[in-house]
UniProtKB/TrEMBL annotation:
The protein's name in its UniProt record: Polysulfide reductase NrfD
Gene3D superfamilies linked: Formate dehydrogenase/DMSO reductase domain
Gene symbol of the encoding locus: nrfD
One Pfam family recorded for the sequence: NrfD
InterPro entries in the cross-refs: Electron_transfer_protein (IPR052049), NrfD-like (IPR005614)
Length: 306
């Protein structure tokens, strides 16, 4: 029996789509989502700093742990309120807590936020009541949940079908984590300066500067990974690119270093916090633009299948 002749392979995909329409629907997250991610990240990092401070200074002579706990608690309340405002219907938030889906980053995120808020309240409340041992015990889950709150949003974005967000999960998580630590350290440093604790504030400011260096390194890794995946265009030109370069990079990284060199640490800390919010906004806006580009979504999907 003669073997059947091989069927010729179809021509490679050239980027065309049905009537030129995008293959993905943009998420269209508004500024509230960017603010939520930034506030939640800084609050989570502050709770980690509170845990480290309690280990290094059990007596909390400088009040660093106490102020970090208060800031973390405030963030754990404000951030979900911002998110609920974006969801329009508060019932959506409650419904997420009715089930647990281990394979759903959104389900994990809902529980991380809830655990972070509950543990932050327990640590802060026990301290206010003078129950030092209970506060230190509650600090353990609070710090763990804080670390999750500072980073889980990057995981949530990178597990979507959006090509820009999914191109490099590791560098994106590192970028968000470093930015969160820079923001948390900067916020607590401002509180320490206001309380007259200059020495501890300076230590936090050095930590925030180091975190900015880690953020810059992660950003370069992320940019290179997105370039290799062919999805970097939204961050190279257009409004998201301007927001990313002028806000996240110039204001969020370069300006704080300049302010520190000029002896204006408070301005440096404020710039870090604002730059962190603009970074999230730029990433979200660029993701929406990437979803509208058929060459990005279909080309990236083809690379993933290889």
């Amino acid at each position: 029996m003669n073997k059947m002749a091989p069927v010729p392979l179809p021509e490679p995909w050239q980027g065309e789509t049905y009537h030129g329409r995008p293959t993905l629907k943009p998420a269209e997250f508004d500024w509230k989502v960017a603010a939520y991610i930034a506030v939640q990240g800084a609050a989570g990092a502050a709770q980690v700093l509170a845990g480290v401070s309690r280990i290094e200074d059990p007596g909390d002579r400088n009040g660093l742990a106490s102020r970090a706990r208060a800031f973390a608690l405030a963030g754990s309340v404000i951030a979900p309120a911002i998110l609920i405002g974006h969801l329009k219907t508060p019932k959506r938030w409650y419904n997420m807590l009715r089930i647990v889906r281990p394979q759903s980053p959104m389900s994990w995120g809902s529980w991380v936020i809830t655990a972070f808020g509950a543990a932050s309240f327990a640590a802060w409340g026990a301290e206010r009541m003078g129950w030092g041992r209970i506060a230190d015990f509650a600090q353990i889950p609070a710090s763990l949940a804080g670390a999750g709150a500072a980073t889980y949003t990057a995981t949530l974005l990178s597990t979507t079908s959006n090509p820009l967000w999914a191109a490099a999960p590791g560098p994106l998580a590192a970028q968000f984590a470093a930015s969160s630590m820079a923001g948390g350290a900067a916020a607590v440093a401002l509180l320490q300066r206001k309380a007259g604790k200059i020495e501890s504030a300076q230590r936090l400011e050095r930590l925030s500067a180091a975190a900015l260096g880690a953020e810059a390194a992660a950003s370069m890794m992320l940019s290179e990974a997105q370039r290799r995946a062919g999805v970097s265009a939204p961050l190279k030109k257009g409004p998201p690119a301007v927001l990313h370069k002028a806000g996240a990079q110039a204001l969020g990284i370069a300006a704080p270093l300049l302010f520190r060199a000029l002896g204006r640490p408070a301005l440096a800390s404020a710039a870090i916090l604002l730059g962190g919010a603009l970074l999230r906004q730029a990433v979200l806006r660029a993701g929406d633009e990437s979803a509208k580009r058929p060459l990005d979504s279909l080309g990236f999907a083809r690379e993933v299948r290889r």
